[in-house]
Amino acid sequence: MAQKFPRLFFILLAVIFALNLVQASITELIYDEAYYWYYAQDMAWGYFDHPSMVAFLIKISGFLFDGELGVRFMSCLLSAGTYILLWLLVDNPKKKDYVVHFFLLVFSFTLMNAYGFLTLPDTSLLFFTALFLWLYKRFLKDEGIITTIGLGLVMAALMYSKYHAVLVILFVFISNYKLIFNKKAWLAVILALIIYIPHFVWLYQNDFVSITFHLYERPNQAYSFSEFTLGFFLNIIVIIGLLFYWVYGAFFKFRVTDKFSKALVYLVYGVLIFFFISSFNRRVQAQWAIVISIPLAVIAFNHLLQNAKSRRWMYRIGMVSLVLLMYARAWMVYKPLFPMLYETHGNKEWVNDLKSKSGGIPIIFENSYRRSSMYEFYSGIPAISLNNYMYRKNQYSIDDSEERVRGKKVLYVSKYRKSGDVRYMHPDSSFSYGNYIEDFQPYRKLECIVEKPESGIKYSLKVYNPYPFDVPLEQLKYTISYSNKHKQVKQMRSLKVNPTAPQRSLLKSKDTINYTFELPISTMENPSYFRIGIAENNLPPGLNGKPIKIE
């Protein structure tokens, strides 16, 4: 061990690990972390937006610690593991003389730094990408059964981290296409698929809701070069931070010498090209390409070891980056350090204010899985997001969160209202208002299934009741929302439905009722999609049907 890791390596690794533990403990959660914490309260093989690894890590952290560290501890541990794996991926014997340079380089990678203590799907994605590359490097030297099994396990862990992980596996295999004839490689793939079966089953049981949403239902917007494609280029700079010039410079100067170095190059180019092409269709988020940080760190450190001039500049800029990132970390905890609001500022205050004013009853947030999960984390009071036609589906749409508040007195909070029984101010200085509902009865899981007419203008509508109880039909009002080609809702109209059988008062549990309807005239220009919604409690209608293309 001492031969591979100098004593200084462990000293600096311990310092960073301790720093991340402290940061994780004293920094308030960001909204996505609170949402994933909500995942972990009901462990499953999958969730609406992501597979289950992030919830699993939070669950383990929660067994060991309370509060914010109970969400983030495993991220601190995986981050330390990523540093170790990156060090092992570099073979140059001169690396022992440049331990400080190594830590400055890796610490300067902006998002890899942040994921050293934040718990997001990309946290485990980075660790398992590094572990996958390390195992693949070993596999190229010795196709032993232990390494083969390890590859299978890690490929499954990658896919349980995030769907984007398929790019890591794909481009590494493309870099060495002869693996298609390798029995051990197929054994690793088959093992990974077997381990991934529970998630496939979950997808099937939930009508492939994650795939459907990401590929078909996610709202988009018209193409904008500055926001989409130029934004992509800005994002791949943000991923690296101040050292982007030297890191990408090292990459473009890098020459392939073996199958492993070829895998590093293919992984970087493959991911960048994939998301560059994607940028012509939708806005690419910075973290989507985060996996390139692993091969780029390896390539940049190798370049640093061989080039004295680059080593000096990378060291100097790395020191500047260290100071700035440490200042940014302090600002995440203490807002006055920089005149900008971030997600880690003021959450405890607004939660405590709303909890006090509401009297501690359950809260229904209109169209906000972010605020509902944050509120529940810091208050300990049940809270859900009730999603309507102006929003999108999320985990609250498919789980049993409705049953936690059914029949109870709740406070329905909306940031779109101008008055209410309760008012509170969010840290962004916006006000939200809440109204009390005495006996809350949500029916957002009613399913509206539309069939297009073979002839004529009448559509068929089936309304299915998945609940274990009957639903009073008189409490339901039907609506239709019209969207443009980017699935952005532009208009909502009431919808007149005509029963195809004698009218009844109840929609029985697990039963279906049939209607016909005609599309109301829309005043918006050239609507591309319509969607059926059902309103109850005199609230805005839900997302009960799927977007239907207007021919």
Give structural notes.
- The structure is a single chain.
- The chain has 551 residues and is of the alpha+beta class.
- It has 3 domains: 8-336, no CATH class; 347-437, no CATH class; 447-549, Immunoglobulin-like.
- Helices cover 48% and strands 13% of the residues.
- The chain is built from 19 helices and 15 strands.
- The chain has helices at 7-26, 31-40, 53-64, 69-88, 99-108, 110-114, 121-141, 145-161, 165-174, 183-205, 209-217, 229-238, 244-253, 259-278, 293-306, 308-333, 347-358, 369-379, 395-398; strands at residues 363-366, 383-386, 410-414, 422-425, 431-437, 447-451, 458-464, 471-472, 477-483, 489-494, 498-499, 506-507, 512-518, 529-535, 548-549.
- The strands form 4 sheets. A 5-stranded mixed sheet has the order 2-1-3-5-4, covered by helices on one side. A 4-stranded antiparallel sheet has the order 6-7-13-11, with no helix packed on it.
- The longest helix is centred in the middle third of the chain and has 26 residues, at 308-333.
- The radius of gyration is 26 Å and the shape is globular.
- The model has no long low-confidence stretch (mean pLDDT 94).
> Number of folding domains?
3
Percent range of helical residues: 40-55%
Cα gyration radius (Å) = 26 Å
> What's the helix count?
19
Structural class: alpha+beta
Tell me the β content.
5-15%
- What's the end-to-end separation, in Å? 66 Å
Poorly predicted tracts of residues: none
Spatial arrangement of strands, main beta sheet: 2-1-3-5-4
Mean pLDDT rating:
94
Let me know the number of strands: 15
- Sheet bearing the most strands, described? 5 strands, mixed
- Outline type: globular
